[in-house]
Amino acid sequence: NAGVTQTPKFQVLKTGQSMTLQCAQDMNHEYMSWYRQDPGMGLRLIHYSVGAGITDQGEVPNGYNVSRSTTEDFPLRLLSAAPSQTSVYFCASSSSIQGHSGNTIYFGEGSWLTVV
Amino acid sequence: SQQGEEDPQALSIQEGENATMNCSYKTSINNLQWYRQNSGRGLVHLILIRSNEREKHSGRLRVTLDTSKKSSSLLITASRAADTASYFCATDAGAGNMLTFGGGTRLMVKP
Known about the structure:
The structure holds 2 protein chains of 2 kinds. By secondary structure, chain A is mainly beta. Chain A has 1 helix and 11 strands. Chain A has one helix at 98-101, and strands at 4-7, 10-13, 19-25, 31-37, 43-51, 54-57, 64-66, 76-78, 87-94, 106-107, 111-115. In chain B, strand 7 (61-66) and strand 8 form a beta hairpin. Chain B has no helices and 11 strands. In chain B, the strands form 2 sheets. In chain B, strands 2, 4, 5, 9, 10 and 11 form a 6-stranded mixed β-sheet that branches. Chains A and B meet through strand 4, strand 5, helix 1 and strand 10 of A and strand 5, strand 9 and strand 10 of B.
């Protein structure tokens, strides 16, 4: 059981380049989300999805796009990378809305992105 | 903006001692969760406490929640070197929102 799988683990981009961070989960979870974690800080929500075909913005969505064509996959796209997007990115999934049942959120191992 | 704020930001103790971390938050919540993050790894769920609960235990972990003060504490008893990690509280305000995380407490347990 792989859980939540993120790729790539590490990536260096030049300013202005675009790229996609991949996220896949094999737990048939409806809810998936992307967070970024900056040094010494907690996680901030970028985008989330409550099911296939449905996405919504989180706290810091600017500069990022997401799509949810299948239940399993939730890719995060950086449209035109900027140094301010240097961060560690975490994908997460859960089986229901946290507020209703409080189910556990499962996190991927993280993707370290540097924009130069 | 961060909903939760952990205190202290860093904590260093000897193996066998207890470690207490506090979390304060700003708005009403449905539940509060604590996560652990080892260096260079993802977050691992430790424990969830609902807004109508005051205390919860899981092994060496004890979590309290005071909704009147909008605060929670995580106690790790009889700490081990392997407990060295960052610990984050995260609040769930419901209405389809995802979790909002605090800045974390970096715990170092010296052998």
